[in-house]
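Q: I'm writing up a methods section and want to include an example of the input and output format. Could you take the sequence below and give the corresponding predicted structure tokens, formatted cleanly so I can copy it straight into the document?
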Amino acid sequence: MFFVILIKLSFRFETEFIEEIVKDIYRRLHVPLLQGFQPLLIGMKSSINFITSWLKDGSSHTADILTIYGIGGIGKTTLAKHVYGLYAHEFHKSSCIEDVSRVCDGKFNGLLDLQEKLSSDISKTSSVKVHVASVYTSKIENAVSRKRVFLVLDDIDNLDQLNALLGSKGFHAGSKIIITTKNKWLTKSCELFKRSAKPKNTKHFLQGLNTNESRRLLCFHAFMSNDPMTGYEEVLEK
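A: Here is the clean output for your methods example:
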């Protein structure tokens, strides 16, 4: 057993290996991988309940895709990562690919790096790094067709990103994919939806906070409490 661990570590960063061990323990114990309290989840209870219900719905014989859309900075990423942390352990394989647009725009081989991470997460096999997007797409397609997976693709802004990360051959039944984007039309325009057996697609619009929720969020950051400090009530309203 120790020899096997050494072999695996020789191909991967130690932090990645530790993270895999932690996830596997949570998965075996059937305990949610909870995150610390996040003030940015204020006002998101109904959205969390909606996505939880969507995740728990096992009636579909195809893959289910949820598109979370809304303006930039509204909390789409925070919401998706929170739900991923709670339920990733319930699937055979899972992967959360963050800041897709930023990575692709900021680095020449950014999309290849994201494909490599996704392929590694869902296949867990060491392989020689390639430099052709279509090769990684094929690896991803093979992996997602065999096992029920849970994917989060965060901040998608064009079809090339979706096609490279999702492929076109389809997912194993019961798989769940969350896509966060500013453009709700993107999902159904990708290659995956040109198949005869299309996945289900649900859309969730993330709205802004109401007055009370806005007050709570501001108070948390300004005063580290649910209420303003004495003398700051008028300033808070402004």
